[in-house]
Design a protein that fits this description.
The complex is a heterodimer of chains A (295) and B (407). Chain A has 295 residues and is mainly α. Chain A is built from eleven helices and four strands. In chain A, strands 1-2 form a two-stranded antiparallel sheet. In chain A, a hairpin with a 2-residue loop joins strand 1 and strand 2. Chain A starts with a strand and ends in a 10-residue tail after the last helix. The model of chain A has no long low-confidence stretch (mean pLDDT 90). Chain B has two domains: 198 residues, Response regulator (Rossmann fold, 3-Layer(aba) Sandwich), CATH 3.40.50; 155 residues, Rossmann fold (3-Layer(aba) Sandwich), CATH 3.40.50. Chain B is 45% helix and 18% strand. Chain B has a five-stranded parallel beta sheet, with helices on both faces. In chain B, strands 7-6-8-9 form a four-stranded parallel beta sheet, sandwiched between helices. A three-stranded antiparallel beta sheet of chain B has the order 10-13-14. In chain B, helix 2 links the parallel strand 1 and strand 2. In chain B, helix 2 packs parallel to helix 12, helix 5 runs parallel beside helix 6 and helix 8 runs parallel beside helix 9. Chain B is globular and about 60 Å long. The chains are: A mainly alpha (295), B alpha/beta (407). Chains A and B meet through helix 1, strand 4, helix 9 and helix 10 of A and strand 7, helix 7, helix 8 and helix 9 of B.
Chain lengths: 295, 407
């Protein structure tokens, strides 16, 4: 059997695959953060809490209204997107003129409120959400047996990430968005409704967090703490990719998932810190991140 | 006249004595207030089986004590979140002992928190009754004379469950261990029991605490080919291990043995995935009429059944207050001596007493999680298989490394 540093190749492949699954969540969440930061210059600290609310939304849809996983995959992001729009309209809107720090503080406060509410309502142990029947069971990939659902996560996350990148970077709508970010006054002078675009962008970013939450529900326990466990890593991913860079968020999300997976094989105690070590190294060499542009 | 003088002298003497006794008694309870601090995990991964529930149980104990004894002293309670961190715990404990005049701190649900609070308590000569944490280090190398470890420890739950599983045929083991003092302590204690029972440990992997995704570690455990995967972790980590083991088809081919699992975890994951698991516990709400009576009162407040930690904190606070009442003092040495002298027999503990190493030993129970079809009403989760007598359930004093134990 072929071995690399004493680890059988087959085992290594399976850990790479698992890393890719985690990377898919990092990519999807950091994409939402990057879109929001890129367009609104808001560091959305509530992203983890909104991801958690996406998972709870799926659980509530199932337990209260008998709406299954695939229904939740569409409905939950819409509900979360609407919540995002309300947050932008009534709270964030007032902070665009002031320092970024205020946006961060506001969203951090919101995260604490949301998490605290869910914690007092449901307790930290959370609720169980079953894998949908269609995606239940394992697939034998030759080198490993992986649950079908995890493959679905990788597939769906890649599709959503690439579609978002395409819309923002390659379409007319995307060019309006980018223009609104670069020079909102001039863009508005061309007859484009910039406040509306900003509001919808924030809603979309939050909807992405909600979507990631629904996707996470069958894998992890639906718990009020699920977002806070993840958010710090996701921020590191965004910083490594380059704040606001769409492709940076996707590539570094998937890449760091894989690096983390490999660390779990070779030296597990480092797996919770490896992302931050890489972040520190990247910041030393390229302060704007791997895909970021120096301003 | 002589008689009258004698009478007068006797009255004066009696009055002086009475005054002296009264003043003495007042001086013994500082400020005439006994203050209990509940330092717990209010928001983190352990808050469901301690946290707010422990605060409620403490309040119930204080209220029941006041109704029963009508004490002359006032009882106060404060609570705070230690966030499972050593620095926050020791800062808070110091602040409570120095400025808030707290006499006793209880709960302390992570081992790091427990160990740091007991160091501060020793320095300040105050009492700590740990009902949440369970590292066996607390009553071994780290022991001191102001600390009681009341509910469980990694030796009791680890070896109780490990012995039962080996007896059922689970001879080969692989551990998934939370990478901090509690997880390693649990693994070490269970390993000893497995080897003694004739089993074998094939390996272990440490995972960071807390871990969201345990699938990588579960695959290692799967590859080891061990019959049993021992979960030397707790709370969210245990829940995610159980869930992800089922997802990856690790179970039912290999069996999971949770070395510390609480009723809140079973409630949260559901019987479908936890059925058949063995566990060792100090308390199950549905065991006797007394446990049911307490648990139903608790349920009316919390809308959940109590875990062994939450029921244990009630018993611990009651035992402490009864010692204060009996001695008329809140002096640490006096109360500790009284607590260690008095046996504990209440709805929670049977054949209980506190040893010189600070360990409260009492009968524990070996339980098995019911199948969904066997569960007849809400929270009907465990079947009690056996009582583990107090002297067998806990580490014998002969094996203790606590310097307070005279050998």
């Amino acid at each position: 059997m072929i071995e690399i540093f004493g680890v059988p190749l087959m085992a290594l492949y399976s850990q790479l695959m698992l890393g890719l699954v985690n990377g898919s969540f990092y990519a999807l969440l950091s994409l939402g953060l990057a879109v929001i930061f890129g367009m609104l210059n808001i560091i959305n600290f509530a992203h983890g809490a909104l991801y958690m609310m996406g998972a709870f939304c799926a659980w509530m849809l199932l337990s209260l209204f008998n709406v299954g996983y695939f229904g939740a995959l569409i409905i939950a992001p819409i509900i979360l997107g609407l919540i995002g729009i309300l947050i932008e309209r009534f709270l964030l809107k007032w902070l665009y003129q002031v320092d970024h720090l205020y946006g961060l503080l506001l969203t951090f406060g919101l995260a604490l409120i949301f998490e605290g509410y869910f914690r007092s309502k449901f307790g930290v142990s959370g609720e169980t959400y079953d894998v949908p029947d269609l995606l239940d069971g394992p697939v034998n990939l030759g080198f490993m047996v992986i649950p079908k659902y995890r493959l679905w996560v990788i597939f769906l996350s890649l599709v959503v990430c690439l579609l978002t990148w395409f819309v923002i970077e390659k379409t007319r709508l995307g060019s309006y968005l980018r223009a609104a970010t670069e020079n909102p006054k001039l863009t508005q002078a061309f007859g484009i409704n910039v406040p509306l675009m900003v509001m919808l962008t924030y809603g979309f970013g939050v909807a992405l967090a909600g979507l990631a939450g629904v996707m996470a529900a069958p894998i992890y326990q639906v718990s009020p703490l699920m977002g806070s466990h993840l958010i710090i890593i996701v921020f590191a991913v965004v910083v490594i990719g380059g704040m606001g860079s769409i492709m940076g968020a996707i590539v570094s999300g998937l890449g760091l998932g894989i690096v983390e997976g490999l660390t779990k094989v070779f030296y597990p105690p480092l797996s919770s810190t490896v992302v931050f070590i890489i972040m520190a190294l990247v910041l030393i060499v390229r302060p704007a991140g791997l895909f970021g542009r120096e301003k | 006249m002589m008689l009258k003088n004698n009478k007068l002298r006797s009255v004066c003497l009696a009055s002086l004595l009475a005054l002296g006794i009264q003043q003495g008694a007042q001086a013994q309870i500082s400020d005439n207030v006994v203050k209990i601090g509940v330092l717990t995990d209010m928001s983190g991964p352990y808050s469901d089986f301690s946290g707010k529930g422990s605060v409620t149980a403490t309040q119930m104990a204080i209220s029941d004590f006041e109704k029963k004894y009508h004490p002359k002293f006032k009882i106060e309670m404060i609570s705070a979140d230690h966030q499972d961190k050593a620095d926050i715990t020791s800062d808070k404990a110091r602040q409570w002992f120095d400025r808030e005049h707290v006499d006793m701190i209880t709960d302390l649900v992570s081992s790091t928190a427990g160990l740091s609070a007991m160091k501060v308590a020793k320095e300040k000569n105050k009492i700590v009754i740990i009902t949440g944490a369970g590292s066996s280090k607390i009553t071994n190398a780290g022991c001191n004379d102001v600390t009681v470890l009341y509910v469980y420890d990694t030796y009791a739950t680890g070896q109780g469950t490990a012995k039962a599983v080996v007896k059922q045929g689970g001879k080969t083991w692989f551990f998934l261990t939370a990478d901090y003092v509690f997880g390693h302590s649990l693994e070490t204690d269970a390993t000893k029991a497995i080897k003694l029972a004739g089993g074998q440990v094939l390996g272990s992997v440490s995972h960071p605490f807390p871990s969201r995704d345990l699938s990588s570690y579960l695959l290692k455990a799967q590859a080891s080919g061990a019959q049993v995967i021992g979960l030397a972790n707790a709370g969210d980590d245990t829940i995610n291990s159980i869930k992800q083991a089922a997802e990856f088809g690790v179970t039912p081919k290999q069996h999971l043995a949770a070395l510390l699992i609480f009723i809140s975890d079973v409630h949260s994951v559901g019987l479908k995935q936890t059925q058949g698991m063995y566990l060792t516990t100090g308390f199950y709400w549905d065991r006797t009429p007394e446990t049911r009576a307490f648990s139903k009162r608790y349920f009316n407040v919390m809308q959940k059944m109590p875990s062994m930690n939450q029921a244990g904190v009630y018993s611990a606070v009651m035992h402490y207050l009864e010692a204060v009442q009996a001695t008329g003092s809140d002096d640490t040495k006096t109360v500790m001596t009284e607590m260690k002298k008095t046996p504990i027999n209440d709805f929670y503990a049977h054949n209980g007493h506190i040893r010189e190493d600070g360990r409260m030993v009492y009968d524990m129970y070996l339980a098995q999680v019911k199948k969904p079809s066997e569960s007849k009403y809400p929270w009907d989760y465990y079947q009690i298989l056996a009582t583990i007598p107090a002297e067998e359930a806990f580490q014998p004093l002969s094996e203790s490394t606590c310097p307070l134990v005279k050998k």
